[in-house]
From TrEMBL:
Organism: Ceratosolen solmsi marchali
Molecular function per GO: electron transfer activity; flavin adenine dinucleotide binding
One example of a Gene Ontology biological process annotation: fatty acid beta-oxidation using acyl-CoA dehydrogenase
Predominant place of localization: mitochondrion
GO cellular component: electron transfer flavoprotein complex; mitochondrial matrix
Protein name: Electron transfer flavoprotein subunit alpha
Comment on bound cofactor: Binds 1 FAD per dimer.
Coiled coil regions in record: none
Residues that, per the record, bind FAD: 227, 252-253, 266-270, 283-290, 304
Domain of life: Eukaryota
Cellular compartment(s): Mitochondrion matrix
Cofactor: FAD
Residue intervals of the Electron transfer flavoprotein alpha/beta-subunit N-terminal domain: 25-207
Length: 334
């Protein structure tokens, strides 16, 4: 009987691996024509979990360096490149038709991108055009058609099975380790040619905020400030502390809405999702919408003068003190 069980098990295992080989995933690369965005590497790991062949689509203006880098990633079978002025500014209006044309030509079982501003603007357009229901912000992959995501601002975890023939998912970067861009040698081919210039929108220019600090979503340490900081000028206290820790600076929505910092620093349900090794929350109460963006951080430190602030419920270390006394003291000791 044991032998029969083993034979059945072996057959099932073979069957699963055959099914996995039938999967073919298209990963949409996010980049700036020179460097690969870290979330693309997270998406590659997610694609690997799905199983089967991985193709990466690199669309841009002069994006040769990016295709080269991605072609070196282990487990990537093919890189499809589309270079055109139509992709200036990476507008979803021009990229969506390219992805649809690529899908029609290659018939992938999965289309994956990061749940970043780029992926969030792009995938719903692709999904609507293909008449498919996308699944966003996936944090786990159980099988090729079953995925895990958070709901109710991170208060519940949902496992969902997608019945559509094509699975279109965006993945949460912090939930998948970044795949190394080495160890492989994928072939580089042309993506389907076409006139992808949008009649709806024209990219004019962009101004990028330059900062020597680490990027929020990939920083190992983050010092984050809330309404308790009371003014934009007082955020200097956090920048001084962040400099000592080589940390990025983040903020609650209340601090952003009050104009203390720019909105690209917002962490939470409607901001960025982060999971650094160290998260220091200063003058932040810990509303669930804020926790949704940072509670997966490895070590959470909270500084708040209110001992009942909800942030202390998720904090590994809590300091009940006036931040205007505690933060300069901490910075001085580092
Ligand atoms: C749909 C929706 C989406 C949202 N999305 C987000 C989101 O993405 N991110 C987000 O952060 N919020 C979000 N919010 C808002 C959220 O509900 C809270 O309003 C917000 O997080 C509060 O920010 P805060 O903790 O800075 O401010 P407050 O709640 O006002 O807390 C300030 C804290 O500072 C402390 N404090 C004050 N002075 C000092 C001092 N001198 N020393 C020490 N401590 C002090 C106080 O004790 C208090 O705990 C969202 C809300 C909604 C409805």
């Amino acid at each position: 009987m044991f032998a029969t069980y083993c034979r059945t098990l072996k057959t099932n295992v073979n069957f699963v691996s055959i099914l996995q080989r039938l999967e073919s995933t298209l990963v949409i690369a996010e980049h700036n024509n020179e460097a690969v965005s870290p979330i693309t590497q997270n998406a590659l790991t997610a694609a690997k979990k799905i199983g089967g062949d991985i193709t990466v689509l690199v669309a841009g203006t002069k994006c040769g360096p990016v295709s080269e880098k991605i072609s070196k990633a282990k487990d990537v079978a093919r890189v499809l490149v589309a270079e055109s002025d139509a992709f200036k500014g990476f507008t979803p209006e021009s990229l969506a038709p390219l992805i649809i044309a690529t899908q029609k030509q290659h018939n992938f079982s999965h289309i994956v991108a990061g749940a970043s501003a780029f992926g969030k603007a792009l995938l719903p357009r692709v999904a609507a055009s293909l008449d498919i229901s996308p699944a966003s912000d996936i944090i786990g992959i159980t099988s090729a058609d079953t995925f895990v995501r958070t709901i109710y601002a991170g208060n519940a975890i949902q496992t969902l099975k997608i019945k559509d023939a094509i699975k279109i998912i965006s993945i949460r970067g912090t939930s998948f380790e970044p795949a190394a861009l080495e160890g492989g040698s994928a072939k580089i081919e042309q993506a389907p040619a076409g006139d992808y210039k949008s009649t709806l929108i024209e990219f004019v220019s962009q101004e990028l905020a330059k900062s020597d600090r680490p990027e929020l979503t990939s920083a190992k340490a983050i010092v984050s400030g809330g309404r308790g900081l009371k003014s934009a000028d007082n955020f200097k206290l956090l920048y001084d502390l962040a400099d000592k820790l080589n940390a990025a600076v983040g903020a609650s929505r209340a601090a952003v809405d009050a104009g203390y910092v720019a909105n690209d620093l917002q962490i939470g349900q409607t901001g960025k999702i982060v999971a650094p090794n160290l998260y220091i929350a200063v003058g932040i109460s810990g509303a669930i919408q804020h926790l949704a963006g940072m509670k997966d951080s490895k070590t959470i430190v909270a500084i708040n003068k209110d001992p009942d602030a909800p942030i202390f419920q998720v904090a590994d270390y809590g300091l009940v003190q006036d931040l205007f006394k505690a933060v300069p003291e901490l910075t001085g000791k580092l």
